[in-house]
Amino acid sequence: MPTTLQGKRVAFLATDGVEEIEYTKPREAVEQAGGQPELISIKPGQIQSFRHLDKSGTYPVDRTVADASPDDYDALVLPGGVANPDELRTHPDAVRFVKSFFDAHKPVAAICHAPWTLIEAGVLDGRTVTSWPSLRTDLRNAGATWVDEQVHVDNGLVTSRKPDDLPAFCDKMVEEIAEGKH
């Protein structure tokens, strides 16, 4: 299976409240596989990450979602944290950005609470996903089948439940990005 991301650009869509390890570990996995990660956000400058409910590091934004073209990226990663996806799903530019990856059949990876943004984008009907357990009803109401698995792949969409799932999530994310469009 291909695991090199040489020449692939990967958008990481996040804002304040992102769970730090759910941003940093997948980003490291993309870099280690030879890919080029870029942090896209709803605001310029930097974003504040958290370790559960405590502030942690800040990370520089490469470009705002309003200035980013989905055509410039090979895949999308949506880190979790409770506040991050809840804020993203209220911004039409962020929702359109997410939906465009599905329209183009590009790989998308979402962990923990990140599927909230996928619900808002209307891209889960008929798909099977996993997430933090509290999203189960929201996902079912959006037309998805929810499963309690460490990582689940559905036609290029990689989902996981929590930070403990990051090793499996990162492996599958890199594999799906390397495969390309689905």
TrEMBL record:
<dbReference type="GO" id="GO:0006508">
    <property type="term" value="P:proteolysis"/>
</dbReference>
<dbReference type="InterPro" id="IPR029062">
    <property type="entry name" value="Class_I_gatase-like"/>
</dbReference>
<keyword id="KW-0645">Protease</keyword>
<keyword id="KW-0378">Hydrolase</keyword>
<comment type="similarity">
    <text>Belongs to the peptidase C56 family.</text>
</comment>
<feature type="domain" description="DJ-1/PfpI">
    <location>
        <begin position="8"/>
        <end position="176"/>
    </location>
</feature>
<dbReference type="InterPro" id="IPR006286">
    <property type="entry name" value="C56_PfpI-like"/>
</dbReference>
<dbReference type="Pfam" id="PF01965">
    <property type="entry name" value="DJ-1_PfpI"/>
</dbReference>
<protein>
    <submittedName>
        <fullName>Protease</fullName>
    </submittedName>
</protein>
<dbReference type="InterPro" id="IPR002818">
    <property type="entry name" value="DJ-1/PfpI"/>
</dbReference>
<dbReference type="GO" id="GO:0008233">
    <property type="term" value="F:peptidase activity"/>
</dbReference>
